[in-house]
Amino acid sequence: MIAIAEKNYLYHGSECGGVYCPKCEKTIKKERLAEVNRQLKARFKKDSLEQGQCPVCGTQLLDTEKYRKG
After folding, report:
1. How far apart, in whole angstroms, are the C-alpha atoms of residue 30 and residue 11?
2. Tens digit of pLDDT for each residue in 18-48?
């Protein structure tokens, strides 16, 4: 699962829309969410993204569009 997460995460502070994990300090791009969710469900039977939780640590994810600086 970490390999999937590392491949699909960006470092904090990226300008893309998506969801951010404050514990891991990583962001999943919004356009990749559906694909990452599909992969997690197929490989690990895990629906954490659908529940709004980080697939790595389980922390509640934050929507970067909602919390964008400006």
Report:
1. 14
2. 999 999 999 999 899 999 999 999 999 989 9
> What is the arrangement of strands in the sheet containing 18-21, beginning at the earlier edge strand?
9-11, 26-29, 18-21, 62-63
Q: What HEC string does the chain produce?
A: CHHHHHHHEEECCCCCCEEEECCCCEEEEHHHHHHHHHHHHHHHCCCCCCCCECCCCCCECEECCCCCCC
Q: Pull the structure tokens for residue 39.
A: 């992969």
Record the pTM: 0.70
Give the domain ranges of the chain: 2-63
pLDDT higher than 70, residue 12: no
Cα–Cα distances in angstroms (integers) from residue 56 to residues 15, 39, 41, in the given order: 22, 14, 14
